[in-house]
UniProtKB/TrEMBL annotation:
Keywords: Dioxygenase, Oxidoreductase. This is Phytanoyl-CoA dioxygenase. GO terms for molecular function: dioxygenase activity. It comes from Colletotrichum destructivum. PANTHER family: PHYTANOYL-COA DIOXYGENASE FAMILY PROTEIN (AFU_ORTHOLOGUE AFUA_2G15850) (PTHR40470:SF1). InterPro entries: Phytyl_CoA_dOase-like.
Amino acid sequence: MTVPSLLDRLNRDGFVVVSSILTEDQLTKLRDATQKATALARAGKWPNVRTLPKQFPPWPTATPEAPPQGIWGVQSMMHPDMPNSDIFVQTYFSDAVIEPTKQLLQCSDNDLVMELFNLLVRPDQDFELRWHRDDIPATATPEQELDRLNKPAYSAQWNLALYDDNSLIVVPGSHTRARTDLERNADPYEKEIPNQLLVELKAGDIVFYNNNILHRGAYVANKERMTLHGSAGHVKGSSLRARNVLQHGLKDWVDRVDLGALGERERARAKNMRRMLVEMGHEAGEVGYSLEG
C-alpha cells in the first residue's frame, strides 16, 4: 500500500503531523529560551504579547506592568531585541521546518516568503478560542467561504510543540467546504461539533495545517505549554496572505532580523525569504485585520 505524502494528507484532512523534528539538545535549548521569553512577557517586560481575554489581533501593547488578566502568547520571536532570538531564527529557518514546508507548498527555496513566528503559552487562566477560520470571518456566506477556500492556500502554517500539547481542535476536511448549517449555527464555543478531532502532539512534534480549516483552541492554566507557532508563504500568494501576516505588526522590524547565526546555505535562503516579506509590506500598505474579537 502506498503511504500518502505529506501533501496528500494535508489536502485530505487539512492538517498533517510530522513527528520528532527536534533533537534532545534542540528541545532543551528551545525550552530554556521560551521560558525566559515568557517570564519577560508575563512581567510586562516584552511589549508584543497576546493578552487575555482577547482572541485575535490587534492586542494592546504591554506596559511596564504585568498584563492585568495575563497572557496566552508571546509575539515576534525573531525580533532583534528578543533574548535568544538567534535560537528562534535557527529553528524557523531550519531544514526540519523548511523542507516539509517546501513539500507542502510544492516550491523551491526561491519561492518562499518569511511570515510569522510566535509562541503560544500556558494562559494565566483557562481560556478558549471560538470556532473560526483564520482569514474568513464567521459572518461570511457559504459563497464567500468557498470563494476563499477554492483559492490555493499559498501558506504552510504550523505548531511546533516543546511540551506535549493537545490544545488544537479541528474538523478534518472542513478546509475544502463551506460550513454546514449545524456548524454555522452552533455556539461559537460549542464543545462538540460532529467529526471534530483533538490534535495530539508529543514534545518535538510539528503539525502543519491549513489555517482556514474550521478549528478552535482550548488552553488550561495548570498545564505547561510552549508551542512555537509559525508560517511561511509562497511568493505567488503574497497579495492573498498580506493581511493575515502583516496584521501581526512585523513591518516595523522584520528588516532587522539577525541572520548571523545561520550557516551559509540557510542564510542565503533566509535573506531571500526576509526580502520577500519586506516587499510584501511595501506593496500591501495598510491591511487591517482578518477577524474581530
